[in-house]
Every structure is written in structure tokens, then in C-alpha cells.
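Researcher: Quick sanity check before group meeting.
Model: Go ahead. Protein one:
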Amino acid sequence: MVMVAQARPSERAEFIKRTYTHLAGAVGAFVIVEFLFFQLGIAELLASFFLGNRFGWMALLGGFALLGYLASNMAAKADDVNTQYMGLGLYVIGEAIIFAPLLVVAVLSSDPSVLPTAAVITLFLFGGLTAVAFTSGKDFSFLGGILKIAGMVALGLIVCSLLFGFSLGLIFSFFMVAFAGAAILYKTSKVMHHYSTTQHVAASLELFAAVMLLFWYVLRILMSSRR
């Protein structure tokens, strides 16, 4: 296998084109699934169950984490492109399920401009961080260890907040935006230095996960600031 960083410029350009095309497709699929959830009343059902039951919310987060792990491994380690697509599809559906309760609150309880504003901010942040990763020429793999530790701390705080019923507040959301930004730098660098030119589907899943994490906390900050 030829790693993207060692590939010919034409192959590298084709990989980048395919990866970001698939990323755009994953975001589009996420929007379609959420639209169907709202049209069919599934989003409201998810919101009423998980927002009113902290243990149900913990089960959802645990199930989503497991699904994300399985989907990511399925996409990254499979030689068959169909298996990679299956992993990406599973992850998109998992993201749609976990986002549905938050989107219901955003639509029904917040300023109607919150959702499009969060989407635009996320797009600009992702674009800027991607540009930094590509133009700096640096390998941001050193962020991997930092992200693992920070992620474990964040997960512990989230679980404690659900168990003991306290709010993590805006400071935590800003921390998670910074965490997601670092994850975008790390994963953009990772797909360039540690993925082969045939793993564009798996690469798009890596980036999709970071983008959705960023969007989640940008949206939470805007919702809190406009209440």
C-alpha cells in the first residue's frame, strides 16, 4: 500500500478529492436522515425518552461510542470498499440518533437562527483548520496522546454529570470546541500520513466524526448564549 504522503501528486490530489467528496456526502446523508426523523416523529420520540432519562442518555452515549468504534474499525481495516461504506453508513445513522434530541431542543426552544449559524461557524472553523493542516506541512500525530487523555477526562466529566445531575456549563463546551479543533488537525494529518490512497472512505469517516463533534459543541454554546 502507498501512503498518501508518499504518493505521486496526482494520486494525492485524487485521494483528497475523493475523501472530501465522501465527507460532503456523509454530511448530506446526515441531514437527510435527520429530516426523515423529524418528518416521521422519530426525533421527538428520541428527545422525550433520552432527555427525560439520564440513564437512558448514558445508554445512548455508550451505544454510540461502541457503534463509532466498530464503524471506524470496519472502515479503516477493511480491504473491501463496500465494508468501508457500511462502516461510514452506520456511523452516520449513529450520529443522527444522538443528535436528534439536541436538534429538537434547538428547533423548538431556541432562536431559529441558531442551527444555520452553528453550521456556518463549524464550516469556517473546519475549513480554517484543514487549511492549516495542509499548508503547514507538519505532522500533527503528536496530538494523538494529548487527545486520548483529554478525551478520557471529558468522558469522565460527562458520565459524572449524568450520574450526579450537575451541568458542565459553557466552559466545558468551549473546551470541547478546542478539543474538536485539535482532533481535526490530528485526523487530517493522520489520513495524509497513515492512510493509503485506497482508504478515502475510511478517511472521510475520521473527518466526519471530528466535524460532528465540533458542530455539537458550537451548537450547544449558541443555544446557551441565546436563551
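Researcher: Fine. The other one?
Model: Protein two, sequence then structure:
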Amino acid sequence: MNQRPTQVTSEQAQALTEHLIALELQLQHAETRRNKVLLNQLLANGFEEIAASGARFGKAHVLERLPEEQAPWVEAFDFEVRLLSKDLAQVLYKAKLRKAGELQTKVSLRSSLWQLNSLGWQMVFHQGTTVLPATGPV
């Protein structure tokens, strides 16, 4: 964890890092994406997403869309977790993604904001930005 605005032990920081990465990866699994109840638990009521296409989605749209679409193949790596406050964290990472029926794998930079509330850690924001091949290695 790069920033520690609140006093946490290294063990607490490591546990939180592992927990948030696990939640992030859980959202990429096909089983989770098909499960509206689980999605509703993981996404905060005010959730917003800006997709790599530039499209902006709210929670209702995601709950309607994800269970109906075939989950893409995703390989996530180079995770970084930043504790922004005692109840807000940012998860940054890179992802290789290939949508169903497509041959091309795209690479993107990902950023999610996770907020701790009475329901636990919930994602409040996510953005994926495609890395163009001309920009070099990721």
C-alpha cells in the first residue's frame, strides 16, 4: 500500500490489500457476474462505471446487463492498493481482456474505488482505459 493516511499496521494493510484484490477478482468471475444478489452486495447504491469505450453506467444498468452477457476472459495483474482514508481505498491494476467471440486480446488500465460501510467493502466507482498498442509495453 502506497499511502497510509490513517495508522494501520503492516499486517492490517496486507490483509486489506489481499481482501480488496480478492473482491476485485470476484467481480471478474462468470459466476459472480450472473448473480444479481451477489452483484448487488458488491456494488454500492451510487456505483458508477466508465467503460473503456467511454460509456458511463450506473448500478441498475450493470445489474441488468452483466447477468445476461457472456463473461469475457480476463487476466488481471500488477495490483496496487492505496488506502485513501479509513473507509476508502483505490485498487489499480492492469488487465488483459478478450470478449466472447473475439480473437483480439485488449490490455487496459483499471481503477476501482472501494468504500467501507455497514455492508462491508463495496465498489463505488470503476474505470477501464484501453492501452493502445502504440503506447508500448504495459
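Researcher: One line on it for the slide.
Model: The chain has four helices and six strands.
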